[in-house]
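Please decode residue identities from the backbone states below.
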């Protein structure tokens, strides 16, 4: 339904809306993109004999323009858990302003396919969850029950957080159905949208947040429970190099006993990341092999990035630069040799944690 409110205080309504036992009713109001207008949405149960009305849900967000997307929609709903048919009326009311040129759009959906948490169409009914101290938080208890469904969740980001961004993803079937995730902060009863990038990442400060999962842009429902995954980009405070691969073991030269790899070979660096004594999964890890005898920097520094796995472990391959044979070390014996090599480092970084270990870059040996 598309219509106009041409006088401040005016209301438009849809009645009757009959809801069978076990059915859910959803209504969503898309508002004009104008700071001068503030429309609200009300849902009443109506006695068909007397026309007496009882308010069962309302949505009264204050207008806040989120760029070209406009202000957040108003949404209401009801789940008929009784054994008789219920009648309802949906009212769109102008709280502030009016317009003969900017319409509102009212979407209404009724369906028997529903989950037990309905109806929670606005932030007044948001279900709270807490983030796990390590790893992803998965929510898989809800479904989209009409093409107008809105599921709301709330969570808090503490001041002592060790992450600056969070990843939000839905399961593949839900993404294919064009279900959508939106993130908001509620301030002064205004829903201020927080941008989620195309790959599901959002920058986060401390405070209270609200997640909206909606099917309003979908053309069909999956009919099954969706899976919502919330994963902070946790920052490690511990990191360790556990082993090297790709060389020929350890060698003892004048600087000590360290792992040795031939220049231009591939070095595998293995390690683990942690936070407060926990093994930290999905941590961003940067590994740099440094040979300071080389210039320019693209030969002096070789860097690769990865993420730790579900057990906090990581492995990354880096092709080293050729050795410049800057150092030499004489090894006496029945057959004496002089080894030529470079002396460098492997540096591993994740969050606030750094681990550094020396390494030799072997060039060649000459028998004496």
């Amino acid at each position: 339904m598309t219509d106009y409110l041409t006088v401040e205080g005016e209301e438009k309504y849809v009645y009757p809306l009959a809801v069978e036992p076990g059915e859910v009713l959803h209504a969503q109001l898309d508002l004009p993109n104008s700071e001068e207008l503030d429309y609200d949405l009300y849902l009443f149960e109506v006695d068909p004999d007397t026309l007496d009305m009882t308010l069962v849900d309302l949505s009264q967000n204050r207008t806040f323009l989120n760029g070209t997307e406009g202000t957040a929609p108003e949404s209401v709903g009801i789940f008929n858990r009784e054994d008789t048919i219920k009648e309802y009326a949906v009212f769109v009311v102008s709280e502030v302003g009016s317009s003969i040129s900017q319409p509102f759009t009212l979407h209404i959906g009724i369906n028997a396919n529903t989950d037990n948490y309905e109806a929670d169409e606005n932030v007044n009914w948001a279900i709270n969850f807490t983030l796990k101290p390590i790893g992803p938080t998965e929510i898989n208890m809800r479904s989209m029950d009409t093409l107008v469904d809105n599921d709301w969740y709330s969570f808090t980001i503490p001041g002592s957080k060790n992450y600056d961004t969070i990843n939000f993803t839905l399961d593949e079937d839900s993404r294919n159905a064009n279900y959508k995730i939106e993130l908001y902060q509620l301030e002064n009863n205004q829903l201020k949208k927080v941008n989620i990038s195309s790959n599901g990442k959002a920058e986060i400060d401390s405070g209270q947040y609200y997640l909206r999962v909606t099917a309003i842009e979908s053309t069909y429902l999956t009919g099954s429970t969706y899976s919502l995954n919330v994963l902070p980009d946790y920052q490690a405070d511990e990191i360790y190099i556990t082993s090297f691969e790709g060389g020929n073991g350890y060698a003892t030269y004048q600087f000590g006993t360290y792992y040795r790899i031939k220049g231009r070979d591939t070095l595998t660096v293995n390690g683990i990341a942690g936070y407060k004594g926990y093994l930290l999964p999905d941590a961003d890890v940067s590994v740099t092999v440094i040979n300071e005898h080389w210039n320019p920097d693209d030969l002096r520094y070789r860097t690769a990035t990865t993420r730790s796995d579900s057990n906090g472990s990581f492995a990354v391959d880096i092709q080293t630069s050729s050795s410049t044979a800057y150092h030499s070390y004489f090894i006496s014996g029945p057959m004496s040799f002089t080894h030529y090599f470079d002396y460098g480092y492997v540096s591993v970084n994740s969050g606030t944690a750094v681990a550094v270990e020396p390494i030799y870059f072997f060039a060649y040996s000459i028998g004496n």
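Observation: Helices lie at 172-176, 297-300.
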